[in-house]
C-alpha cells in the first residue's frame, strides 16, 4: 500500500513556491490515497533562531493556511512534528548511521552555512536526518516535495537502504513525487512511465493531467530567476505570499525581473524571468503552458505581468479570506493539531518500538 508523507516548516505564511511546488499536490493526493500524513515541522524550524512567541503563532498560522488551501483533516492526518516524540528518537538512531562528509556535501547546508558565515548549528547540519526520520517513521512510500528537496530525499533513500542492509528489510525506500516538467521528461502529450524518468527515485505527480505540464518543480524568485522563491529572501519583492494584498501582488509582479525582449514566450533555459511568469500563470490558471503562451500573443511583457498578477490574485482570494476566518478560531486550530498529532503518534509508536528492538535496545 502507498503511504504519503510530507512536511512544511512553520516559518511564515506559505508562498507561491510552497503552494505550487507542494501544497497543491498535497490536496490532490489526500483525495486519491487512504493513508496520507502532513506535518508542520516545528523541530526543523529551530535549526535557525526563532522567537518562541512568534513560533507559537506561526504554527497556528500555518495550520490555518494549510486548512484554507484545502488540506482536510478527515482525509489526511495533519499534525505537529514536535508532539510526536518518536521523530527525535528515530532521528538519533539514523544520525548514528550517517557519516559527517555526507551531510557536509548537501547543497542546502553549504548555501545556508555560507549565509551564516560557516557558523551554522549542528541542528542545521543534521536537519536532513530528522527529515529522514519523519518519513521513515511512518514507513512512507511517497513524498510530494518541490525540486529543492530532491537531494535530501536521496539521503532519505540511502538511509532506508543502509538501515535495511544492517537490520534486515524494514523500511520501504520512499520516492519523491515532483510536479514535473513535460519539457524535460516527455514529448507531446504522452506522459512517461516512472521507469523512463532520469531518476528512478522520482515519480511524476499524476499521469493524467496535461495542466500539470507547467514546469513547477521549482518556482523562481521574481527578482532573480536563477534562484528559487524562498521564505527567507531578504528582497521583499522576490516572494509572493498567499496572504499578500492584491496591491502587493501587483507591485511584485510589476517589478518582476524579465529581459529586453517584449514578447511572451516559454524558454526556461534562455528566458528564465518570463518563463517563470508563464509557468506560474499556467499553474494558477490550470492551463497548459502552450495555451497560456497562445493567449498572450501580441501582448508585451509589461502588460503580461499584470495578467499574471490578476490570475494569482484570483487564485488566492478565497484562500486568503478563509485563512482570516480560521485564524479567529484559535481553539479549533489547536484541536485540529491535537487530534492529528494523537493519530500520528498511534502510527509512529509501534514502528519506533520495532526499530528499538532491531537496534538491540529492547
Ligand atoms: P519547506 O518548508 O522549505 O517547503 C515546503 C515545501 O515547499 C516546497 N518549495 C518549493 N517548491 C517549488 N518552488 C519553490 N520555490 C519552493 N520552495 C519551497 C519544498 O520543496 C517543500 O516540498 N525540509 C522541508 C520540510 C520537511 C519535509 C520533511 C518535507 C521536513 N521533513 C519530510 C518532506 C518530508 C522544508 O524545509 O520544506
From TrEMBL:
It is found in: Mitochondrion matrix. One of its GO terms (cellular component) is mitochondrial matrix. Its main location: mitochondrion. It catalyses: tRNA(Trp) + L-tryptophan + ATP = L-tryptophyl-tRNA(Trp) + AMP + diphosphate + H(+). One of its GO terms (molecular function) is ATP binding. Belongs to the class-I aminoacyl-tRNA synthetase family. NCBIfam families: trpS. This is Tryptophan--tRNA ligase, mitochondrial. It comes from Bos taurus. The lineage of its organism: Eukaryota, Metazoa, Chordata, Craniata, Vertebrata. The gene is WARS2.
Amino acid at each position: 500500500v502507498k503511504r504519503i508523507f510530507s512536511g512544511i516548516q512553520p516559518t511564515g505564511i506559505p508562498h507561491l513556491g510552497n503552494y505550487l511546488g507542494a501544497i497543491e499536490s498535497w490536496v490532490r493526493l489526500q483525495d486519491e490515497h487512504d493513508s496520507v500524513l502532513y506535518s508542520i515541522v516545528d523541530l526543523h524550524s529551530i535549526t535557525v533562531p526563532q522567537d518562541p512567541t512568534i513560533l507559537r503563532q506561526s504554527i497556528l498560522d500555518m495550520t490555518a493556511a494549510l486548512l484554507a488551501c484545502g488540506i482536510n483533516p478527515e482525509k489526511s492526518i495533519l499534525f505537529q512534528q514536535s508532539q510526536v516524540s518518536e521523530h527525535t528518537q528515530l532521528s538519533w538512531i539514523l544520525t548514528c548511521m550517517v557519516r559527517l562528509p555526507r551531510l557536509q556535501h548537501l547543497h542546502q547546508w553549504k548555501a545556508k552555512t555560507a549565509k551564516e558565515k560557516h557558523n551554522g548549528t549542528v541542528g542545521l547540519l543534521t536537519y536532513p536526518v530528522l527529515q529522514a526520520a519523519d518519513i521513515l517513521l511512518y514507513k512512507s512510500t511517497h513524498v510530494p516535495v518541490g525540486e529543492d528537496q530532491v537531494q535530501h530525499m536521496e539521503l532519505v533513500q540511502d538511509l532506508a537502504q543502509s538501515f535495511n542492509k544492517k537490520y534486515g528489510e524494514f523500511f520501504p525506500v520512499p520516492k519523491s513525487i515532483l510536479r514535473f516538467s513535460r519539457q524535460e521528461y516527455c514529448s507531446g502529450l504522452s506522459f512517461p512511465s516512472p521507469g523512463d524518468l532520469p531518476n528512478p527515485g522520482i515519480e511524476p505527480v499524476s499521469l493524467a493531467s496535461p495542466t500539470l505540464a507547467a514546469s513547477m518543480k521549482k518556482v523562481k524568485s521574481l527578482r532573480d530567476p536563477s534562484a528559487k522563491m524562498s521564505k527567507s529572501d531578504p528582497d521583499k519583492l522576490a516572494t509572493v505570499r498567499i496572504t499578500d494584498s492584491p496591491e502587493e501582488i501587483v507591485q511584485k509582479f510589476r517589478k518582476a525581473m524579465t529581459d529586453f525582449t517584449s514578447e511572451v514566450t516559454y524558454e526556461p533555459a534562455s528566458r528564465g524571468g518570463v518563463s517563470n511568469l508563464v509557468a506560474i500563470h499556467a499553474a494558477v490558471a490550470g492551463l497548459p503552458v502552450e495555451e497560456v503562451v497562445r493567449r498572450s500573443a501580441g501582448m508585451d511583457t509589461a502588460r503580461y505581468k499584470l495578467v499574471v498578477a490578476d490570475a494569482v490574485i484570483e487564485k488566492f482570494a478565497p484562500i486568503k479570506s478563509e485563512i482570516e476566518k480560521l485564524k479567529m478560531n484559535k481553539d479549533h486550530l489547536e484541536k485540529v493539531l491535537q487530534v492529528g498529532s494523537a493519530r500520528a503518534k498511534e502510527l509512529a509508536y509501534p514502528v519506533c518500538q520495532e526499530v528499538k528492538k532491531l537496534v538491540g535496545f529492547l
